[in-house]
Amino acid sequence: AAGRGRVEFRDVSFGYPGAEEPVLKDISFTAEPGRTTAIIGSTGAGKTTLLNLIPRLYDAGGGQVLIDGVPVDRLTREALSEAVAAVPQKPYLFSGTIASNLRYGAQGATDEELWEALEIAQATDFVRDKDGGLDAPISQGGTNVSGGQRQRLCIARALAARPSVYLFDDSFSALDVATDARLRAALKRSIADATVILVAQRVATITEADEILVLDDGRIVGRGTHEQLLETNETYREIVES
Ligand code: CTP
Ligand code: MG
Q1: Which residue from 25, 47, 216 has its CB within 8 A of the most atoms of ligand 1, so it is best to mutate?
Q2: N or C: which terminal CB in the chain sees fewer CB atoms within 10 Å?
Q3: Which residues pair with 65 in a beta bridge?
Q4: For the segment 9-43, what is each residue's pLDDT rounded down to a tens digit?
């Protein structure tokens, strides 16, 4: 049975194999359904690594990552991929068609559902303009679409999978400010009940989050809303003002 998608980190630590220093240390937080949790921090702080522990691209070295109270290493691969959809920092498209790329993780989705996902992802216009529409060819790695289009197709792919947990790793960075704003407004309406964890650089993307975690050198050094952190957290101020 599908849970609601509550993600919890309990004292999580992680180090890459062979590395001496852990990349994540004592990470504890809860991301609730219906809320957006934003993670910010300078490059190399560990944001992508943290997200990757949720779908088990890596396993935590210490502590636990749980979804709806169940440790992720006790979920089947199938249950995990049903629960979580991630849009990676470097979104990847496979050779095939737009439709086959969108159906990766959502095999049963109808064309109508794919168009709905594209609409939310602000990708309807360019897919409609492509010869073949949903059946337009995509080359290996998605080199025949732009970076921003690739990003939006990967967002649509995540939406088509209808998970309870969405992970967006800097997924709005290649979009212009207006498209970014429209996309986030559409997301808010369409996945209002889901758990959203996002990594973002753009201040406007962060300020709307329900909770912001400030990551510095693998540790959470601050948490709260934009206003709270502006008042209390030096690291946050530096990041936002830079
Ligand atoms: N790292 C590593 N091996 C990997 C990936 C990352 O050793 N396969 C290291 C990086 O060199 C870095 C740390 O792990 O020191 C955290 O990396 P990452 O989680 O990717 O940092 P981000 O905060 O995501 O950085 P960015 O903003 O540049 O995406
Ligand atoms: Mg990263």
Answers
A1: 47
A2: N
A3: 9
A4: 999 999 999 998 999 999 999 999 999 999 999 99
d(CA 57, CA 104): 17
* Ligand approaching nearest to the C-alpha of 22: 1
* Residue with CA closest to ligand 1 atom 20: 48
Reported as a single tens digit per residue, the pLDDT across 91-142 is: 999 999 999 999 998 889 999 999 999 999 999 999 999 999 999 999 998 8
Ligand 1 atom 6: residue of nearest CA: 49
CB of 41 shorter than 6 A to ligand 1: yes
CATH superfamily for 7-241 is P-loop containing nucleotide triphosphate hydrolases (3.40.50.300)
| Burial label, 181 (beta-carbon count in 10 A; 0-12, 13-18, 19+) | middle
Q: Which residues pair with 31 in a beta bridge?
A: 7
Residue 184's φ and ψ, nearest 5 degrees, are -70, -35
ipTM of predicted complex: 0.99
